[in-house]
Amino acid sequence: MARTSLGEALMTWRAAVAPGDVGLPGNGARRTPGLRREELAQLAGISADYLTRLEQGRAANPSAQVVEALARTLQLTDNERSHLYQLAGLAAPGPDRIPRTISPGVQRMLDRLNDTPVAVFDAMLTELHANPLYVELMGNRTGNERNAAWRNFLGTAGRIRQTPESLGLLQELQVADLRRTAGRYPNDPNLHALIDELRRRSGRFDHLWESGPVAEHQATQKIIDHPRAGAITLDCDVLHVAGDDLRIMVYTAEPGSGDADKLTLLSVVHS
Question: Coiled-coil annotation: which residues (predicted)?
Answer without folding.
Answer: none
